Predict the structure.
Amino acid sequence: YNKEQFTQLAKPKLDYQAVKSDIADILEQQGWDGYNHIGPVLVRLGWHASGTYNKADKTGGSDGATMRFNKEQNDPANAGLHHAQKFLEPIKAKHPGISYADLWVLASYVAIEEMGGPKIDFTPGRKDAPSEASCPPNGRLPDASKGSSHIRDVFYRMGLNDREIVALIGGGHGIGKCHSDRSGYEGPWTNAPTTFTNLYFKELFDKTWTQKKWNGPLQYEDNTKKLMMLPADLEIRNDPEFKRIALEYKENKEAFFKDFASAFKKLTELGFKQF
Ligand code: DDH
């Protein structure tokens, strides 16, 4: 054996199945978010760790787990994600061989699957960057107050297309909620925030969305005043190309699950080269 082969052999093999089942075991957390489930915030962690990618200079992305460092953690877009990182510490302590970068992505896959979403095949190999110097610039994640051209700018920068944009937003906002003490926005998009469904598209098209009257940022509410949409969400209904794709996903759950799974895998592997 040469030195490199020997190091590979000497490394204890990680049992990813065991890591997955340990993650599944911590998804239920009493008192968390009123619905006792951390799946949604783990998905948001996987997405924000990945969505900084810039295909032009190959910076950002999930490889590196650079959100561990203050600079990226303090990007206002990442408000609240220290909770998600903290929930995963016991898993890292039990399986020290997994990198944070792999752990965050794996946790988002497990959360999606455990909430009833598609199974996404996990490819390990991400490494943790040594210092803050590897952080991408702040401000690369989408701004909820802006329109479709901003959304396209952000996702095209990553190398993703309109179909992938609609699948990703519909899946991500079909779970979880907004928190006024994190983003400033408040409330869930659907009545089943811990179940992965295509309900986001049904709510988007079947409900009437009116401006919420409050002191917070501009957002929309349905007639029950329980559900919400961000200005950026309504762009999925108002932009003709986004709308065409979203209507397809509203009618065809299987196509949506399949497209979401491949788009989310692609998103979480941007800039990551396995050897
Ligand atoms: Fe999102 N998202 N997101 N999102 N997102 C928020 C919450 C969650 C935008 C803004 C917000 C995606 C795309 C966009 C999830 C997943 C995904 C919140 C509220 C804002 C604001 C945060 C808070 O207050 O806690 C905007 C703008 C976009 C856009 O693309 C234009 C995508 C692509 C995903 C994905 O997963 C692929 C999830 C999950 C949440 C709920 C988190 C939670 O704690 O619950």
